[in-house]
Amino acid sequence: MRILLVEDEKRMAQALSEILRRENYEVDHFDNGTDGLDALLSDVYDIAVLDVMLPGLNGFGIAKQARAEGIKTPILMLTAKSELDDKVEGLDSGADDYLTKPFMTKELLARLRALGRRTVDTPDGTLSYGDITLDTNTMSLTCTSSGQNVRLGEKEFRILEYMISNSGQILTREQIALKIWGFESEAEYNNVEVYISFTRKKLSFVEAKTEIKAVRGVGYELRCDNV
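The chain above was modelled as a monomer; its predicted structure follows.
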């Protein structure tokens, strides 16, 4: 799961990034509101963690503009402000949750898990398309036609999760690269092609009729024409 962290306090940002990475989250950090908004508008994040007091544009402004652009990414607002009016402003701006500094690590992680569950389409933690089902708890792929299943690698899982969540859309190589590897990664587009190939092999292994189709000059699309 990829998290956008927008926090201008260097020590706080470093500590939060370390905590989240230990919990196997992938984190992209920005230290100002302008860059943070641009990142959030890319729509490649599963959760956004925003500080309120930021240079350029505050957290309330980021949330408000992102929602106006149709971004539905769950937002957790972090701030030293504890007054009721500030919490109300944050929620009215589009935040989904609000955590006041200082906070306990356990509470932060619990709130992130709760927000993460909102991105899963079914209560049991599975995503389905065509004749495949993806278990987000075990990172396993099952074909409902053949009954075969296989455990996926982390990048294969994230590619299928992203494609199922955006079924019916053509995803560009750039979108996939940003979603899976992030802004700060040096991954090149050939990495996308390599891991798309790996993912196709897993689909073939479980004998799925669902396929990842290449759209020439554009990107990739999840298709299932024979079910």
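The chain has two domains: 2-117, 126-223.
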